[in-house]
């Protein structure tokens, strides 16, 4: 059965407009949260290290209130390291006929991107400081409609779906349009995740994303993007183990696919100290041009005290950025302070 996403969009927007009809909102709360990160990184192999000191900071302004019809509204806007505005989200809960679901207009992330690698880690993913990994990303960074149901039909499973009419960028000014010159068209994705009934500590998740690309005189625009991933994690006391697989077919003049396998194990030495080992094997296949396999290995450690976290990462990569015989390494220490 073929789903007409244009009709879905019309029905969804009409229902949203009717359900959210209001005249005013009750006074709510406004807060500012953020974090500051300072790091020291030394890279080896084909990597080039200049000044090893780095810093990043981010602020999030959040506001919430309640409409006259009882619908709760929450808004957030991030402010980047360069003090510019970035991702934003307007979320509604308690919408009539939608139960406990949350409906959001958002560019603050897409469901499948949030689970691109959820194997257990103490500090950072194995690909955080070396190489260049092509993993599932969906329509992340685009402005669209997100539907989240935390407990689907009492199963304890979370259903998280996203749709955008044009996957070519963030939101424009009111009454403005964006992305009309790109090849990408509509995009949708859905993620289902939760705990396995009757098995303590075992959880799993799966996600699928599709981005349409229109056909024109440029052959590179003619291939749609399909992505899928599946993971399973198990926790027993302070020990966590997990495995995941993600596959991406990207748009291009020929079919290019990336097949990623993730493994991770972490151990909580104490309430404050954790250590982990992670690996990633990523195989790039390009039509008749053959394959190249990029592999990552890393050990990481984290120590938390109050709002401060110290993280240490030791990572290596072979055939980095899908280039044969290119090896890289990185050693990093990072301090993160949340406020």
What this model shows, in words?
The chain is mainly beta. It has a single domain, classed as Porin (Beta Barrel), CATH 2.40.160. It is 4% helix and 54% strand. The chain has 1 helix and 16 strands. The chain has a 16-stranded antiparallel barrel. The protein is globular and about 60 Å long. The termini are far apart.
Fold topology:
Blueprint lengths: L4 H15 L5 E21 L7 E15 L4 E8 L5 E9 L8 E5 L37 E6 L8 E7 L19 E12 L6 E12 L11 E12 L2 E12 L5 E13 L4 E14 L4 E15 L2 E11 L9 E11 L1
Antiparallel strand pairs: 1-2, 1-16, 2-3, 3-4, 4-5, 5-6, 6-7, 7-8, 8-9, 9-10, 10-11, 11-12, 12-13, 13-14, 14-15, 15-16
Strand order of the largest sheet: 1-2-3-4-5-6-7-8-9-10-11-12-13-14-15-16
Indicate the radius of gyration in whole angstroms: 22 Å
Envelope shape: globular
Alpha-beta classification:
mainly beta
- CATH fold topology: Porin
Beta-strand level of the residues, as a percent range?
over 45%
Low-pLDDT runs: 5-23
- Percent helix, as a range, is under 10%
Would you kindly provide a brief summary of this structure?
The chain has 339 residues and is mainly beta.
Entry keywords:
Porin; 16 strands; mainly beta; about 350 residues
